[in-house]
């Protein structure tokens, strides 16, 4: 099983622009695409701490698997209502997003390996999927 705790640097995206547009917020696609974040994941007992750093902003989110929490994105103060569960070799986060209609769930599956992290993005209302790849630092 791969180590989850660590620091990861964004490398590339697949179909991410179409994914953001499928949320009905095409105007935000460029903002997300220009971001090249560093993600640091730490574990404190049963809590996980995820810090995302971009050029201009750093946000930290803390969660316990299975419990709802406010997840702040490092983009214009966007806050998701999220629940993250441990799943396989990583995490699955299901969120209600202010970027989408209330019945749309944003789903992110985080898959870890010895060399990095891949985030698979989807929703419960669209077939559009995306992937963001990060290398382990």
Description:
Keywords: Lipid-binding. This is Fatty acid-binding protein-like protein 5. InterPro entries: Calycin, Fatty_acid-bd, ILBP. Belongs to the calycin superfamily. Fatty-acid binding protein (FABP) family. One of its GO terms (molecular function) is lipid binding. The chain is built from two helices and ten strands. With 137 residues, the chain is mainly β. The chain has one domain (4-134): Lipocalin. It has a ten-stranded antiparallel sheet. The chain starts with 5 loop residues before the first strand and ends with a strand.
In CATH terms, what is the architecture?
Beta Barrel
Query: How large a portion of the residues is in β-strands, by DSSP E?
Result: over 45%
Class from helix and strand fractions:
mainly beta
Q: Can you tell me the CATH topology?
A: Lipocalin
- What is the CA-atom radius of gyration, in angstroms? 14 Å
Number of strands: 10
Read across the widest sheet, the strand sequence of neighbours is 4-3-2-1-10-9-8-7-6-5
- Overall average residue pLDDT: 87
Number of helices: 2
Shape field: globular
**Number of spatially distinct domains:** 1
**SSE topology string:** EHHEEEEEEEEE
CATH superfamily annotation: Calycin beta-barrel core domain
Which parts are unreliable, with pLDDT below 50 for 5 consecutive residues or more? none
The main sheet comes to: 10 strands, antiparallel
Helix proportion:
under 10%
Measured between the Cα atoms of the first and last residue, the distance is 18 Å
InterPro entries: Calycin, Fatty_acid-bd, ILBP
Protein name: Fatty acid-binding protein-like protein 5
Keywords: Lipid-binding
GO molecular function: lipid binding
């Amino acid at each position: 099983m791969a180590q989850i705790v660590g620091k990861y640097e964004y490398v590339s995206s697949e179909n991410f622009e179409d994914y953001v547009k499928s949320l009905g917020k095409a105007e935000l696609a460029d903002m997300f695409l220009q971001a090249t974040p560093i993600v640091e994941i730490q574990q404190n007992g049963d809590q996980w701490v995820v810090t995302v750093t971009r050029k201009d902003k750093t946000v930290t989110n803390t969660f316990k698997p299975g419990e709802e929490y406010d997840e702040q994105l490092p983009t214009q103060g966007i806050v998701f209502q999220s629940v993250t569960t441990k799943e396989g070799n990583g995490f699955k986060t299901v969120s209600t997003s202010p970027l989408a209609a209330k019945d749309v769930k944003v789903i992110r599956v985080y898959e870890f390996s010895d060399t990095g992290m891949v985030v698979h993005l989807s929703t419960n209302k669209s077939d559009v999927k995306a992937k963001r790849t990060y290398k382990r630092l």
